[in-house]
Design goal:
alpha/beta; 505 residues; 36% helix
C-alpha cells in the first residue's frame, strides 16, 4: 500500500534527534503529534496544565518524554518547559470565544515568543488555518493572524503551517460533517455550502509538523497544508454520504442563515457546542485553498486523496480506535466544595461476585454507544433537554468504548478522578441549577467486590432545590438500574474465565 503521509518519508528526522516542546499535548493535534515525534527519535517536553490528562496516553511513560506542569501564561513555567529545546510547537487556541479572548491570546503568544528568545530556542512552529487572509475576516480568524504576528515579534524564526479543514476521527470539523450527513437527508444550509475548500487528512498534517523539525530550511516559511482535491462543501457532503453508504443528501442553500444561526443548528444536530461551532461556521465563508507551492518545495508532500481520508476517519470511529478527540482539550473544572451548605446525596451499595478489576471494567463501559445499563430512554430525554438548553447533551459520546482517562468527556460528564480498579468520579457538565458529581468506589471482599455508587448535588438557589425534588423520584429507576446493570455486566461469564465456555459444542 502506498504511504502518503510526509512523516513516513522523512528519514532525516530519525538521524537528527532534537529536544522539542509540545504545548497543547492533551489536545486533538498535540496528543497525536507527541508519539510521532518520538517515533522519529526526538525527545519531547509536554507542557500541561493538568498532567493527569496525559497519564493514560500510551506514550506518557516513555523515557524520552518529560511532562512539565504549569500554565503557559507563567513565564517561569515556560522557561522550565523550553529548557534545552531547539524547537517549540505552539498549538494553543481559544476555540470558545468570550469577553477579551483575543487580547488573552495575543498576550499568551507574546509571552511564549519572549520565553523562546530567552531560552535560545531556534524555531517556533505554529499550526494555524487556511482562509485566515483577506479584509473580511471574522474576529476569531483575525485573532489567529494576530497570534501569528505575536509569535514572530521577538525575531525567533516562526514556521507557520496553515491547514485546511482537517479530516480525521475525532476532529471537530469532521464530527460536524459526519453528523450532519448521517442525521439530515435534507439539509438547509448557508450559501457557504458552495465555497471551495481543500480538506486535508490529519495524518498528513502530523507528517508535515514532524518533517519540519528536521528541515531548517522551513524556518520563517509559511506552508499551506491542503489535500490534492479542490471541492465544495456540498461535494464533501456527497463523498461522506457515499462513504457511509447513505443515499445522496438533498442540500438547499439559503441566504438567511447567519453564522450565529448556523452554529445553533450545528449545536442541536451534532456533538459540537455552539461556542465552538460559531468560529468554525464563520470561517467557512472564506475559500480555503492553498495559494503557495512552498509546502511541496520544502517537504516531501504527497497528501492522500480525500476519499481515503474520509474512509480512514470513519473506520477508526467504527472500530473505537479514536486516538484523540476535539473534546480532550481545555481545562477541567475542579470539583465543587461539598463542605457547607445544602448537598443532597443518593448513595447505593451492592455486593458483586467479580474481582475489582472486572467490576472496574464494567463501570468504565457506561455511556456513549454502550448506554447506561438502565433507563436509556430517560438518559436520551435528559440529553435532548440539555442540548436544547445549550449544554453538550449526550452526543459527545466517548473516545473509546472500553477505556476512560482523566479529563476525558463522557457524554455530558467529565472524568475528574480515576484510580484503576478502585474508583471513578464524574462531574456533570450539563446545564444544571447546581453542581453534580457521580462517583463509583470499589472495595474488595472475601468473595468478590462491593460497589458503592454515590450521586451528589449541590443546588444553587430555589431553582436548584426544585430541580432535585423533580428528579428524585427518577433516581430509583436510573441509579438503581445502573447499579444492577453494572453488577450483571461484571458477573457475566466471559472468555477470559474459560476460553471454551462460549464455544459451540
Amino acid at each position: 500500500m502506498t504511504q502518503h503521509s510526509p512523516d513516513s518519508q522523512s528519514p532525516a528526522a530519525a538521524r537528527s534527534p532534537q529536544t522539542v516542546l509540545v504545548t497543547g499535548a492533551s489536545g486533538y493535534v498535540g496528543g497525536r503529534l507527541v508519539p510521532r515525534l518520538l517515533d522519529d527519535g526526538h525527545r519531547v517536553h509536554c507542557l500541561a496544565r493538568s498532567p493527569q490528562k496525559l497519564g493514560e496516553r500510551p506514550w506518557a511513560g516513555h523515557r524520552r518524554v518529560t511532562v512539565v506542569e504549569g500554565d503557559a501564561a507563567d513565564p517561569a513555567v515556560l522557561d522550565r518547559a523550553m529548557h534545552g529545546c531547539s524547537a517549540v510547537f505552539y498549538l494553543l487556541h481559544s476555540m470558545m470565544a468570550g469577553p477579551g479572548y483575543a487580547a488573552r491570546d495575543r498576550t499568551l503568544a507574546h509571552a511564549f515568543a519572549a520565553a523562546a528568545e530567552r531560552s535560545g530556542v531556534e524555531r517556533i512552529l505554529y499550526l494555524g488555518g487556511l482562509g485566515e487572509t483577506g479584509p473580511d475576516l471574522s474576529e476569531h480568524l483575525s485573532s489567529r493572524r494576530e497570534v501569528e504576528g505575536a509569535l514572530a515579534s521577538t525575531g525567533v524564526p516562526v514556521t507557520v503551517l496553515r491547514a485546511a479543514m482537517i479530516i480525521g476521527s475525532g476532529s471537530a470539523s469532521f464530527e460536524i460533517l459526519r453528523y450532519l450527513v448521517e442525521r439530515l437527508p435534507v439539509m438547509v444550509t448557508p450559501r457557504w455550502v458552495d465555497t471551495q475548500c481543500q480538506p486535508v487528512a490529519i495524518e498528513d498534517v502530523l507528517g508535515a509538523l514532524v518533517a519540519c523539525v528536521a528541515r531548517p530550511e522551513t524556518a520563517g516559511a509559511t506552508l499551506d497544508l491542503g489535500g490534492p482535491d479542490v471541492l465544495t462543501y456540498r461535494d464533501l457532503m456527497k463523498l461522506t454520504a457515499e462513504a457511509l453508504g447513505l443515499p445522496p443528501r438533498i442540500v438547499l442553500p439559503v441566504p438567511l442563515l447567519t453564522p450565529r444561526l448556523s452554529s445553533l443548528w450545528i449545536h442541536l444536530v451534532t456533538p459540537i457546542g455552539h461556542q465552538i461551532a460559531r468560529p468554525l461556521a464563520e470561517g467557512l465563508r472564506n475559500p480555503v485553498i492553498c495559494r503557495s507551492d512552498a509546502t511541496s518545495r520544502l517537504l516531501p508532500w504527497r497528501p492522500m486523496p480525500i476519499e481515503r481520508a474520509i474512509e480512514r476517519a470513519l473506520d477508526q470511529t467504527r472500530q473505537g480506535s479514536v486516538e484523540t478527540r476535539w473534546s480532550d482539550a481545555g481545562p477541567v473544572p475542579g470539583d465543587p466544595d461539598w463542605a457547607g451548605g445544602t448537598t443532597f446525596v443518593d448513595r447505593r451499595t451492592v455486593d458483586v461476585a467479580a474481582s475489582p478489576a472486572r467490576l472496574f471494567r464494567a463501570i468504565c463501559r457506561i455511556g456513549g454507544g454502550n448506554g447506561w445499563y438502565a433507563a436509556d430512554a430517560l438518559w436520551r430525554i435528559r440529553g435532548a433537554i440539555d442540548r436544547l438548553a445549550g449544554g453538550p447533551g449526550l452526543r459527545r459520546g466517548r473516545r473509546s468504548t472500553e477505556d476512560l482517562a482523566w479529563g476525558e468527556a463522557l457524554d455530558f460528564w467529565r472524568v475528574t478522578a480515576i484510580e484503576r480498579d478502585r474508583s471513578l468520579d464524574l462531574r456533570a457538565e450539563m446545564k444544571l441549577p447546581g453542581e453534580a458529581l457521580l462517583s463509583f468506589e470499589i472495595e474488595p471482599t472475601g468473595e468478590g467486590s462491593r460497589l458503592t455508587q454515590t450521586a451528589r448535588f449541590k443546588p444553587r438557589g430555589l431553582l436548584g432545590l426544585v430541580y432535585w425534588a423533580v428528579v428524585l423520584p427518577l433516581h430509583g429507576v436510573v441509579f438503581r438500574g445502573m447499579l444492577r446493570g453494572i453488577q450483571r455486566e461484571a458477573e457475566r461469564p466471559s472468555e477470559e474465565d474459560d476460553p471454551g465456555a462460549l464455544e459451540a459444542p
